[in-house]
Amino acid sequence: MSEQLTTTPMTQMESMSSPVVPLRRRLLLAVPVVGVVGLLFLLGWGLNHDPSTIPSALIGKAVPKFSLPPVQGRTLGLSSDNLHGEVSLVNVFASWCVACRQEHPVLMGLRRINTVPIHGINYKDRPQDAEKWLNTMGDPYTRTGADLDGRVAIDWGVYGVPETFVIDAEGRIAFRQVGAVTPEIYRDKIGPLIEKLRRQKTEEPHEIEGDRSNGAVEAVRKQEQK
Predict the structure, then answer these.
(1) What are the pLDDT digits (tens) for 137-167?
(2) Interior CA angle at 206 toward 205 and 212, to 5°?
(3) Which segments in the chain show pLDDT lower than 50?
(4) Rg, C-alpha atoms of the chain
(5) pLDDT tens digits, one per residue of 28-46
(6) Do strands 163-167 and 143-147 pair parallel, antiparallel, or not at all (unpaired)?
(7) Which CA distances in Å does 208 have to 33, 131, 203, 211, 214?
(8) Which of 114, 128, 130, 157 gets the most CB atoms within 10 Å of its CB?
(9) Are 72 and 128 a contacting pair, CB within 8 Å?
(10) Around 123, how many Cα atoms within 13 Å sit in the side-chain half-sphere?
């Protein structure tokens, strides 16, 4: 009788707790499985999506309000007030950015024939490095703002450098290019959009704008061959 009194409570406790242990183990085992599945999903998405087509919530909206001092060695800074009245490009760059070096001849080609005003946002760069970069590589920018802490780039939704934005004459973001601008990207995407935006503002004939765009592409290619 005494044995039953001493063993029964233990037996009851074991029967109550035994289902809980396997459940906890199953939950612990499920955690890494869910993590692996999520990682595989992200990898698959990345392999099947062009990073340059990442959408921007700011497309069609006014550029964020900002005001940046000029890059060291330059006299003109950049602010949101400077992005009204004409179609322009805003290029986010840095001297430490490898892809920026690759696209720089394209920007210089556009500047050489004055295709479109190009403004620069220098992202998280040391002032002396940014100055040396522009002095050595050439300066394609009309205005260049020094975003030393990267806060302005964050407001623009920048993921990394380089990124380039097409701004319409009303100061709205019309297009966003993630990654380097190539002659092909300018020919197929950016150039035609600039033409369209200019026609909307000035109602210039399509043929005139088409000639201007073709000349820009040719200038870019010649700049790359140098």
Answers:
(1) 999 999 999 999 999 999 999 989 999 999 9
(2) 105
(3) 1-7, 10-11, 13-18, 37-53, 204-210
(4) 28
(5) 555 555 555 444 444 443 4
(6) unpaired
(7) 59, 37, 11, 5, 10
(8) 130
(9) yes
(10) 23
How many C-beta atoms surround the C-beta of residue 127 within 10 A? Answer: 14
Tell how many helices (H) and how many strands (E) occur in the chain: 8, 7
> Are residues 164 and 190 in contact, defined by beta-carbon separation less than 8 angstroms?
yes
HEC profile for 193-219?
HHHHHHHHHHCCCHHHHHHHHHHHHHH
Q: Which residues of 19-32 are buried (b: 16+ CB within 10 A; e: fewer)?
A: eeeeeeeeeeeeee
Q: Are 73 and 129 in contact (CB under 8 A)?
A: no
- pLDDT for res 28: 58
**Token couple for 50:** 């062009």
3-state class (DSSP) for residue 165: strand
- The DSSP code sequence of 84-153 is -SS-EEEEEE-TT-HHHHHHHHHHHHHHHTT-S-EEEEEES--HHHHHHHHHHH----SEEEEETTSHHH
Token pair for 221: 């290619």
β-strand partners of 147: 123
Amino acid letter, 214: N
